Amino acid sequence: MNKLGRFRVAFRAAARRAGAGKFLLYGYHRPIGLIRNSIAEGGPIEQVRTELGRRRMEQAAWHWQELEPRPDRFAARVNYLSGEKFWYQTLACFISLQQHCPFRLTPVIHDDGTLGPTIRQAITRVVAWTEFIDIATINSRLDRELPETRFPSLRARRRVYPHLRKLTDIHVGQSDWGLVLDSDMLFFKRPQALLDWFCNPRPIYMQDIADAYGYSPALMRELADGPVLSKVNVGLYALDRSRIDWDDMETWCRTQLEREKPSYLQEQGLTALLLSRQVASALPVEDYRLMPDAREGKAPKAALHHYVAASKRSYFQHGWKIALSCAPRTA
After folding, report:
1. Going by DSSP bridges, is the β-strand pair 177-181/232-240 parallel, antiparallel, or unpaired?
2. Is the pTM of this model over 0.85?
3. 56-75: per-residue pLDDT in tens?
4. Nearest to 174 by CA among 238, 233, 235, 128
5. 309: left (phi > 0), else alpha (psi -120 to 50), else beta?
């Protein structure tokens, strides 16, 4: 038997011993995935630089300059879901937005269950008027508004899929306009379209590079009972929370799980259904950029960057330092 034949025999034997699925996952797919990620992120040296940049950002957050509040003009609130892993990114996102806003904004931070007192103090040291929605309050709202006996799919999915909390935890029991921002975003200049929204609330969203909803277009159209908005990205969106039909949300969630399978992108798919029902409009893609390339990351021209996937390199190596030094620190 030649070498190739012996390799095939050994491969099959190892697969049988480990279970073919696990063998392929840990012996092939996962290593290949890591290699592909490394290439996309610039290689091992750049990955190390990115991680060092992330650590420097987190360390710097403990010492960022306190914002002086501007006089209130009207209630303008920005919602985040955050915790111990992302608090410094949440803070950087808000600072960079407030720096380019002519009126005071209030960050409303919804606890993901890990937001301890030390982190809260670090945030309020910089933004003293921050509002926190603690996990006990969130759980009480959920039990009152989305009881498990009536909403079993949403409640069960929320426990194992933290992304869903951006929908359930932020919006449940609310009847006003809700603007939601992800933490891994930065503002670099006056975001005029977003500032206009504060004066004239309406359903809006930033654009993705493609439809990424986790479920087939046919199922999405069926659930929406019509066309689904294209390229919805949940990094930044706003909707009328009084129009959320939680019974429909339960049906959509259950149907997606039963007809296809759990998806990492389910929260984005559900949000796309909500925004489609409210006929939301897209923010201009040239100013609200998802996954900026290396050139844009080093010299931002857009108002906003949303750093996902390989663009974390620009975020941690360059973005946060540029964003937090490009405007006066009075807010």
Report:
1. antiparallel
2. yes
3. 999 999 999 999 988 876 77
4. 238
5. left
